[in-house]
Design a protein that fits this description.
The chain is α/β, with parallel strands linked by helices. The protein has 21 helices and 16 strands.
């Protein structure tokens, strides 16, 4: 994450050392200079947020430095210090745009308070809060022991955990995670991150299928203020947000073709350039990506670059579907029943044996995500402390066997075309069924219903539906 960047210009080595040590302890990035020419060289080469400036300097006085800084770098906030209480200079400095003014000797805490009052400090805090909203913090158990969240005792799960550990040890190597929707690709990615040496830095998850193509470059690399219509302020992109940590690109197969070449270039050069800027920003990011697509077929259809695919696929992990590890269903069922009974404040003492047997025969097109959703609903419906087959409504519908319409009547919700029916109810059912059939994949659901993902979103909000 970006740090506040401070430049100190003072000809006193003692003052520069004290300020530098103090600010570094606050986790700020600090540049030091003792003469104006040295300070301007630093400003030309480094982005700077705040400048601590002495008035009495060799080469030129601080007021002249202030005017030149405000002329060439108008966004830099300047705090001035002086050993002489000259009110005229204070007034002139304020007119030239100085943020605050202190006489020597000053208290370090007063300088810190002045920094926290500046616009740059407020803006940086706002960015931190904005980015932080995008981070889904995982449980303490996942940080300390990933196995607590990846539930199962099958050989498939044990093999998966071994692969995650290997991937975590190579914390610069890109990893491609494949598997059907709902198998837990993001959970595996988070596990790799928290098992790696990058665990103390951010894990940033981005869904490539949820971003309109015209906004994709801005989301990926960020943009400068005024870069395009509507860019009213500068924006930090995914790569900058995940600096020194991990960037997880979910649904990588849905990335626009034009952006794929730019992503490949960033992976090779380890530098990004914001939209509307000529300045390259070095980034240290570990890339994890995931897809449920057949990427070889996607490449043959010229929808994905082969060179990017091989770059992302340096290490490969496949997550098996739940139907191939049915021995894990009892453990998963118990785990989610306990989880939802606690979060919903419901008493669940037992799970009927026939429920487990029925679930083992269920096709689970939505995989673990579908089982999780089914269990949540069952816990909500249960009132006697025992989860029974009747509480798992998807089992009563017969799994993937969907009734077909005849010429005279539609069996959806027992609606007859010979009488009055509720068209909105039919639409709501079709959306729910399409979500279930596609494993709650947003892109595939919109394709199945022949509508844009934005139209699907509007209808889901209309009916109070949500993705799993």
């Amino acid at each position: 994450m970006n740090k506040l960047k401070i430049l100190i210009l003072d000809d006193s080595e003692r003052i520069v050392f004290e300020l530098k040590t103090f600010f570094q302890d606050l986790d700020y990035m600090v540049f030091e200079s003792f003469i104006p020419s040295q300070a301007f060289e630093i400003l030309d080469k480094n982005e700077t947020d705040i400048m601590i400036l002495d008035i009495n300097l060799p080469e030129m006085n601080g007021l002249e430095v202030l005017k030149r800084v405000k002329s060439r770098f108008p966004d830099i906030e300047v705090i001035m210090i002086t050993g002489h209480g000259d009110m005229e200079k204070v007034i002139e400095a304020m007119r030239a745009g100085v943020s605050d003014f202190f006489n020597k000797p000053f208290r370090l805490v007063d300088i810190q308070n002045a920094i926290e009052r500046t616009r740059k400090f407020v803006e940086l805090n706002q960015k931190l809060k904005t980015v932080q909203k995008h981070y889904e913090l995982v449980s303490k158990e996942l940080r300390n022991r990933v196995e607590h969240q990846i539930v199962g005792e099958s050989n498939a799960v044990k093999s998966l955990m071994a692969m995650m550990q290997k991937a975590a040890e190579a914390d610069n190597t890109p990893v491609l995670i494949t598997g059907e929707s709902g198998t837990g690709k993001e959970l595996v990615a988070r596990g790799i991150h928290y098992l790696s040496r990058r665990s103390s830095h951010y894990f940033y998850a981005a869904n490539c299928s949820a971003i309109p193509s015209e906004l994709f470059e801005s989301e990926l690399f960020g943009h400068e203020k005024g870069a395009f219509t509507g860019a009213t302020e500068e924006k930090t992109g995914w790569f900058e947000a995940a600096h020194k940590g991990t960037l997880f690109l979910d649904e990588i197969g849905d990335m626009p073709l034009l952006l794929q070449s730019k992503l490949l270039r960033v992976l090779e050069d380890k530098k990004i350039r914001r939209v509307g800027s000529n300045r390259e920003i070095p980034v240290d990011v570990r890339i994890l990506s995931a897809t449920n697509r057949n990427m070889e077929k996607h490449i043959q259809e010229s929808q994905f670059r082969q060179d990017l695919y091989y770059r992302l696929n340096a290490f490969f992990i496949h997550i098996p579907p739940l139907r191939d590890r049915t021995e894990d269903i009892p453990l998963l069922l118990k785990y989610y029943a306990n989880f939802y009974s606690g979060s919903l404040n419901k008493r669940i003492e037992k799970i009927a044996p026939e429920v487990v047997e029925k679930l083992k025969k269920h096709p689970f097109s939505g995989n673990v995500r579908e089982l999780k959703n089914m269990t949540e609903m069952a816990v909500i419906l249960c009132d006697d402390g025992v989860l029974k087959e009747k509480h798992f409504t998807a089992l009563k519908r017969g799994g993937d066997q969907v009734p077909q319409c005849s010429n005279s009547a539609c069996p959806y919700y027992n609606i007859s075309f010979e009488n009055k029916f509720d068209l909105l109810q039919v639409e709501q059912y079709l959306i729910c069924e399409a979500l279930r059939r596609t494993g709650y994949n947003k892109t595939k659901t919109s394709e199945l219903l022949n509508m844009s993902w934005s139209s699907l979103d509007r209808r889901m909000k209309k009916y109070g539906l949500r993705y799993l």
